[in-house]
C-alpha cells in the first residue's frame, strides 16, 4: 500500500532576514537541479506579498537556469496585469525584471486579462493552463509542482484561502475564485488544497516579529485549523518553513539545522 500520509513539516530558522534569503536561494537551486536533471524543466508556483522580495538571492546567481522555469501563480488578484495589486506585476518588479536573460515570456503563466469580468471563466481558463502544463505531460489527477512558494497572513491565510471560507473544503477544482476576500482586493483566483497538497515541495517563507503569534498557532497548534496549517503535502511531498529568528520567537515546534 502506498503511504499518502503527510510528512511532518521541516522548520528552518535563520538568524537574520538576509541569511534566510541566502538559505532559501540555496534550497530553490537544489530543487531546480533535481527537477531539471529528472524532467528537463522546473515547475514553480509563486504567491505575492513579501515573497518576491525574499527571492532576491536568485538575482545575478549564475546557477539559476531561468530558461527551464515554468512559473504559475498560486493565487492572483483579479486586476489588470500592470495593476499595483497584481502578483504578476509584483514578481516582475521584484524579480523577473532584474534577471537577464530571464524566464521566457511563454513560460510565465498569467491570468487572462480579457476575462476579468467573469470570475468563473477566468478561473477555468487558468485551470486549463495548468492542465496543458501538467496533465498532458504527467497524466496526474492533480498537478505535481516541483516547488510551491507561499507566504502567510496575520490571520493564517495562505494563497487566497481565508479562515472560515467555503473554499477550504474544495476537493475537486484545481483553481477556484473568490469574490468576497476579507482582504482587498475582494476578487481573486486561487489554487485549492488538492493542488497545494500534491506538490513535491511546498515552502512557506515568513520573517519579522509580526508573524510570531501566527507561526506559533500554525506550527504548535495545527488543530486550530488555520488555512496555512492545512497545507500538508502527501507523501512523497515535503513541507518546509523558512523563517527568521524574529518570527520564530514563540514557536515551540522543533527546529531542523539548515543543511542541503
Automatic annotation (TrEMBL):
One Pfam short name: Glucosamine_iso
Family: Belongs to the glucosamine/galactosamine-6-phosphate isomerase family. 6-phosphogluconolactonase subfamily.
Reported function: Hydrolysis of 6-phosphogluconolactone to 6-phosphogluconate.
NCBIfam families: pgl
EC number: 3.1.1.31
Catalytic activity, reaction form: 6-phospho-D-glucono-1,5-lactone + H2O = 6-phospho-D-gluconate + H(+)
The protein, known as: 6-phosphogluconolactonase
Pathway(s) this gene product operates in, as recorded in its UniProt entry: Carbohydrate degradation; pentose phosphate pathway; D-ribulose 5-phosphate from D-glucose 6-phosphate (oxidative stage): step 2/3
Domain Glucosamine/galactosamine-6-phosphate isomerase: from-to ranges: 16-241
This protein's UniProt keywords: Hydrolase
A single GO molecular function term of this UniProt record: 6-phosphogluconolactonase activity
Alphabetized InterPro entries for the sequence: 6-phosphogluconolactonase_DevB, 6PGL, Glc/Gal-6P_isomerase, NagB/RpiA_transferase-like
Keyword DNA-binding: no
Residues spanning the membrane: none
GO biological process: carbohydrate metabolic process; pentose-phosphate shunt
Amino acid at each position: 500500500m502506498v503511504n499518502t500520509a503527510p510528512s511532518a513539516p521541516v522548520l528552518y530558522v535563520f538568524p537574520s532576514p538576509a541569511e534566510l534569503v541566502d538559505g532559501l536561494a540555496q534550497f530553490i537551486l537544489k530543487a531546480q537541479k533535481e527537477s531539471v536533471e529528472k524532467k528537463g524543466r522546473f515547475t514553480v508556483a509563486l504567491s505575492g506579498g513579501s515573497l518576491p522580495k525574499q527571492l532576491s538571492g536568485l538575482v545575478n546567481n549564475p546557477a539559476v537556469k531561468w530558461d527551464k522555469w515554468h512559473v504559475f501563480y498560486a493565487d492572483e488578484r483579479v486586476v489588470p496585469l500592470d495593476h499595483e495589486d497584481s502578483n504578476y506585476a509584483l514578481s516582475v518588479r521584484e524579480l523577473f525584471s532584474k534577471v537577464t536573460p530571464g524566464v521566457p515570456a511563454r513560460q510565465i503563466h498569467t491570468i487572462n486579462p480579457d476575462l476579468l469580468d467573469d470570475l468563473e471563466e477566468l478561473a477555468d481558463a487558468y485551470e486549463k493552463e495548468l492542465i496543458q502544463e501538467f496533465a498532458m505531460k504527467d497524466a496526474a489527477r492533480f498537478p505535481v509542482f516541483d516547488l510551491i512558494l507561499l507566504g502567510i497572513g496575520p490571520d493564517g491565510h495562505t494563497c487566497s484561502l481565508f479562515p472560515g471560507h467555503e473554499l477550504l473544503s474544495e476537493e475537486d477544482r484545481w483553481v477556484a475564485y473568490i469574490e468576497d476576500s476579507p482582504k482587498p482586493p475582494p476578487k481573486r483566483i486561487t489554487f485549492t488544497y488538492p493542488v497545494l497538497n500534491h506538490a513535491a515541495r511546498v515552502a512557506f517563507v515568513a520573517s519579522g516579529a509580526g508573524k510570531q503569534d501566527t507561526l506559533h498557532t500554525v506550527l504548535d497548534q495545527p488543530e486550530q485549523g488555520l488555512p496555512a496549517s492545512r497545507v500538508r503535502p502527501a507523501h512523497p511531498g515535503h513541507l518546509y518553513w523558512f523563517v527568521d529568528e524574529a518570527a520564530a520567537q514563540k514557536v515551540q515546534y522543533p527546529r531542523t539545522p539548515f543543511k542541503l
